[in-house]
Every structure is written in structure tokens, then in C-alpha cells.
Task: structure prediction
Amino acid sequence: MTLVLGLVLIPFLAGLVLLCLRADLPRRVVVVGVTVAVCAGSIALACVAAPVNLEGLPVSRHGIHLGMIVIEALMGLYVVYVGVRSRHYLIVALMVAQGAVMGWFEWLARGDVTADAGQALFVDKFSVVMALINGIVGGGICVFALGYMREYHTKAHREVPDRRPFFFALLLVFMGAMFGLVFANDLPWLFFFWEITTLCSFLLIGYTQTEEAKKNSLRALVMNLSGGLTFALAIVFFYHDAHSVELQKLIHSDHALALLPAALLCFAGITKAAQCPFSSWLLGAMVAPTPVSALLHSSTMVKAGVYLVLRLAPAITGTKVGLMVALVGGVTFLIGSLEAITTSEAKRVLAYSTVANLGLVVMCGGIGTSQAVWAGVLLIIFHAVAKCLLFLCVGVVEHKLHSRNIEDMSGLILYMPKVAVMMLIGMAGMSLAPFGMLISKWAALKAVVDAEPMMCVFIAFGSAATLFFWVKWMGKLVEVVRPQTPVVHEISVDESVALYGLSVATFLACLLFPVLSRQFIEPYVAGVYGQSGSLGPGNTIIMMIMMVLVMLFPFSFLSRGRGVKLVDPYLGGANVEGSPAFTGSGDAVENMTMRNYYMGGVLNELWLSRAAVAGGVALLAAMIAFGSFIL
Amino acid sequence: MNPWIRLILYLVFAPLAGCLLAGWDRRVSARMQSRRGPPILQPFYDVRKLWQKQNLAVCPSQNYYVLFFLVLVIFTGALFFFGSDLLLVIFALTTASIFFVMGAYKASSPFSFIGAERELIQMMAYEPMVLLTAVGMYMVTKTFYVDGIANQKGLLVLTLPGVFLGFVYMLEIKFRKSPFDLSSSHHAHQELVKGITTEFSGRTLAMIEVAHWYESVFLLGWVYLFFASSPILGVVMSLLVYGFVVLVDNVFARLKWQSALRSAWVVTAVLGVGNILVLSLWR
Result:
């Protein structure tokens, strides 16, 4: 109990402390201290034998409840103020509606002791997995941010007002809210943390206060508030019908009671996970400093969305609602992957890939069989570590090259070798066969083919597109064209601690995935469904053989250049000594350049995103309708 | 047959069979163009000669990528003939191809670069159909294991005609035959030069050839699966499909990559998805 409460409260309290710390050193001490504490805490939680004892809150439930209402009301007032100030009346309307719905709930539940009787917190293997991700990956991001933000304000972006105390306070509060979210069983509690993440993400996206940042943060706020509204409605409906506000009860209720609330909660999850009609908020979120993007994309925020959908999987499996959720995921996966091909901006590619991969998780949640949920949890783990690593690497590169264009990263392996190798590790983790994401994709495909064979089509086409954009980026990193002088000081101490840590985490997650699966995912899935998914018996061994095979690759560089005669590349003319230029016709010296394909003529980002919005809206409308008629 | 015996037979005899197939390809192509053509063992002589040549490279590390390409191609085929999971086989094959592409990127000449990019486009073109082929086979046989699929009663091609045709279309791309010889081609006198293999020479080029031998045998093995309940028909059909691929190679001119990609995806969507849709409604 203490452990769980500590994980939630320490980041919150530390966040408040940070708000008052102006100097660099104490801030570092606090942030590093909190990171160590939450990492240790989540690992300790993982080692505690289940079931975790959650009896005996130190304060009365009622008191906590009141406190939450007060904070929620304050947050609501602030959001209304933001809406009025920016003349964005949709925000005001959504917030007022949400407030009204929650008021209705309080009125319904007045004097009802049973509403407070159930377990407020809940810990199972799935929450432990999420807590580990949040603690280790989120902690890594906070440490990274220390070094990154110093450089951000002193070198790269001097024009942005330095509000670092505020920034770090938000990061930690965000992390605390995420811990609360994964441990909450009481739906109003879950909702409370849910709204904190919405507000934090709004404030973080708008951190730089440029026009673009303001606009994008408001968009994120609108979309997440609409999810908040359906969340509130779900609480009211479920309480009205079932006289309970427990997530665990909702999951195990029959369809007549649970389907509509589950559909509404899935809607909320889909907004937060930036699925089809809502994916634009996550793309807009890239205006924020890189640690924010990394946090939103890997350990918190979007993961909260997919967490909820996967949690609800048992309640919607086999229904039309589940099918619609799966379709939203499938469409998002396919279109997101195609869109990622069309852009050369590194962060945008990463964002599209996040959207796509979360689509896959949502698809697994919608299918909702034991095998699918197993694959979904696996996807969450691998995506979190690898994607976080990639974002942070791109952030470092952006500071040194002053560009986030993939074309400018040509030959990065020569002048920023450490970062380039870490990026390659991340990308291999995302796209190469025996490693994390591909294992999970494989598992997802197997799960889907048993339940809804037609959904395989999305995976088949989508994963072909994924392959294309990852490998062409990897190719850019390793190619050797311009003679470059190595960057002397690649990364600061904080940054390198985080980056090395995450590289090792990616590596270990890939290597130890059978252990992860056996220790955490299989017990969770078996606990919910009575059986668990897994890869076929011999397959894990074959996979390990293959993994060892591929991991031998770096060792081949030990005999680098032995017995090989180096020559200039063929350029169709006489090479100019020591440069990528050649003498063409008429003795003119021509330079050569190489650019990746972005398929501008075949794929159009704008059309694709419009198609995604149209498809997503239709599917979500159908989902809510099916939920109301309990199909 | 014991899977270990199959595995050893594959490792030993696949390069031989692949070499003969390649020689036969060149011979038949020559006859179609009213030439005499080289001896049937010419690919083997080529590789032997390449092996003795000096090892030239633009980048010292480019050759390691090709080495791992070869190792992984052999591994892929080994998995297939050992009777493992078909999806695992596909992923292994993809990883192998990625190593090849990365090697070409590393070589960093504009010609190998464009070859690498186009090879990726080709992979993107055939990958969906290949995955759907595995899915189709699963839907009929209820297993992804090659062993189980091969022991199925009844000809798979009868329930999977669309998937089969789509798969043959993808073979055309996978073998880099005209009209899909976008990334590299046998004829080095064109705008591509040799595309993806431009900067590889000597032993490394020999390794690429050997990898193709292994790959051809494995892909024809997959064709065989469609007819596995009648082994003789299976062998005959695999050879016929190979002959068809060679014929198409000689009849068509190269397509642009846009049309190659579009046509491949349309074929997949119509034949592959259509077939699977019918199967899933039928259940």
C-alpha cells in the first residue's frame, strides 16, 4: 500500500517542490532523486508477490474524494478561463458539459455508501508493467530533460522564456498522474488522474508560447476534453445501471450493463491514444521541446489511452463495439504507416509511427481475445522503450545539426557515432525481425487471424509500409557521402545517462522478452481469461537463435577492412579525388546528391489524413450506436 | 521425412539446384532470343571466378551486410524446410533483405543507393501478398507450420486460387524479373548500371549469387506447398511456375516503380484479399 501511494504521491510532491526551485543544482538533485525513487519503487512493486495488499488508506476515502472534487473543479475553472481567453468556446462548452455530468454523478451518488465501498486502488501484473514503463522510461526522460533543457535555453532556443521550474514540475506531476491512472480502480479516481494528464499535456505542448504552440495545445485540449466528456458519461451511466464505480466490476459485468460505458470509455481511450479522427493533436504536439514529445509518445498520455482500451478488452470482445474499436485501430495503423512514408521530418515520422503502432494495440484491444491482449501488452512494452530512445536521439541530433530533417542526417554514423548507433538500436527494435516490435506484430497477426481474418489485411499492408520508412531512414544514417568532421561533444552527462540506459533497456527488453512474457503478461492474461496467449512452443527458441545471429553482426566489424581494397564509388564519370564529386562531360565538376523517395506522387499526406478523419468519425459513431443498442 | 534430414538436404543441395535453375533460366532466355546461350553450369563458373577476384569495396563494412544477408537467407530456407512457422519464415526473409539493402546504402554510390531504394519499394510491393498467402494457408489448414500445411489433405490451390495467382505475381517481383527488375537487372548497360549490386565485387558478389540460389529453391518450395498433397504435381508445378516467370521476364519491358507498386497492391487487394474474404464468409 505504502509503495503504491508513494509512487503516486512522491512525483506530485516533488513537482510542487520544483515549482519553488530556481537554481539548477537543487533541481537536478530533486529530479534525479525522484527518478531513482520511482524506478526503485516500480521495480520493488514488480518483485512483490501478488496479490498486493491494498487495505487501509491512511486518510478517509470520503476526504480524498472531496479533495479530488475540489482540485477537479479548480482545473475545470482554469480550462474555462483558457477557453474564454483564447476565444475557443468549444473548450468552454466541453468543460461545462463535463462539469455538469460530473455534478449529476455526485448528485446521484449523494449519501450512497456503496459507491465508496469497493477497492479504490488495484494492482495486477498489467498495472505493474505500466508502472515499470512509467517509472523507468518516464524517469529516463526526466533525467534527459535536465541536460536537454539547459542546452535548449542557453544555446538552441534563447528566444523562448526560461520557465524550467514550471516545466519540470509539470513533468513530474504528469508522471505521478500516470501512476495514479494505472493503479486506480475507482472510476472517479481514474477520471481525476485522466484529467490531470490532459491538463499537463496542454500546458507542456504550449510551453514555448509561440503562436503555433498555442494553437496546437488548444487542439490537444479540445480533443482530450471530448474524451473526458465521454469518460464522465460512462461513469454516470455505469453508476446509474450497476450502482458501482469500480473498473474491475465494469470489466466483468455482462454486456447489458457494461457495453455502453465500455464503448464510451473506449472513445476516451481512443482520443487519448490519438487514434484516427484525433491523431492530429499528437502530431501538433511536436512543437514542444523533445522530452515532452518523448513523454507523450512513449510512457504516459497515449499509453494511458491504450491501457484503458486493453483493460476493457474483456468487456467488448466479440461484440460489434469491439469490432468497431478494432477497425479504428486497423485504419489508424494502415494510414499512419502510409503517412510516415511521405514526410522527411524526423519527429513527424516518429509521431506517425506512434499513431500507427498504437493503432495496432487498439486493434488488439478491440479483438479482445486472450492472444490479442497478450500481443497488445507486448506491443506497449516494446514501443515505449524503443520510441522513447528514438525521440531523445532525434532531440540530441536536432540540437547539433539544427535540423530535424532526415535528409540532413546522412552519414550521421560518421560524425555522431554514439547517437547514430543508439538510433539504429531503436529502429532495429522497431522494425527488424527477431526484435521487439516485430515479435509483437507477429503475435498480433496470429491473434487477429483467429478472430477476424479480414483484419489481417490492415496488418499486411500497414507493416509493408512501416518497413519502408524505417529502412530508408536507417540507410540514411549509415551512408557515407560528405566528408564530415565529428561533433566533438556529442551529449551531456544527463543526456548520456538517459540514452545509454534506454539503449540497454531496449536491448534487454528484446533479449528477455520470454521472461517478461512469462512473469507479467501471461499471468495477467491468464487471470482475466483463464488462458493465455504465447508464441508457439519451438518458436521462442528459433527466435533466440535468430536474435543471437543478428546480434553477432556488430562483431563482424572487428575484422574491418581486412583483405579489402578501397576504391571510389562508381559515379558515371571520373571521380574527383577524395570527394563525392565527379568530372562529367566538358570537364565540368559535378556534385552528386542522394535523396530518399517520399512517394509524393503516389501518396498524399493531406488526402490520407482526411480519409483517416472521415473513416474514424464514421467508425466511432457506429461504435457508440452499437454500444447504446448493446450489440 | 525427418525434419533434420530435410534440413541437411536443403543446406547441401539447394545451392546446386538453384545454380541449375539459374543456368537453365539463362539458357532458355537465350533460346527465346534466338541465341545459343551459355552452358547450364555457367552460373557456377561465374561464382567460382568471382571468388578468386580481388575484393574491392567503397566502404570497408559494406561486405559484412552482404555476409549476413547470405547467412539469413540460408537461415530462412532452413526454417522453411525444417517445417517451422510460416510467419517466422517471412520475417526472417524480410530481415535478410533488409541487410542486403543496408549494404547497398552503406556502399553510398548513387546507383547502389537508387537500387536500394527501389529494392525497398519492391519489398513493400510484395510483402502484403506474402503475408496474406500465409494467412490464407492458415485459414484452410488451421496451422502456420510448414509441416502441417504440407501434410494437408487436398490441394490447397483449389481453395486458394486467388492467393496462388497473387503469389505468382509476387514471385515475379521477388526474383527481380522484368517487368519488375527495378532495383537491379542482369543487364548492366542502362541507367541503373547494376542498381543495388553496383558496388559489390569479387567474393561479395559471389555471396549475393549464392544467396539467390538458396532463395529460389526456398520460394519454389513455397509454390510446392500449394500442391503438397500430390508431390509429383507439386514439383512439376513449381518448375512450370519458374518457367512462366522466365517467360514473362523475356516478354515484358520494365515498369516504372509507381506502376509496379500500384499493380502489386491492386493484385493483392483483388486476388489475395478477395480470396480471404470468400474463405472467411464461408467458415
About this structure: The beta strands of chain B are 56-57. Residues 3-180+191-282 of chain B form one domain.
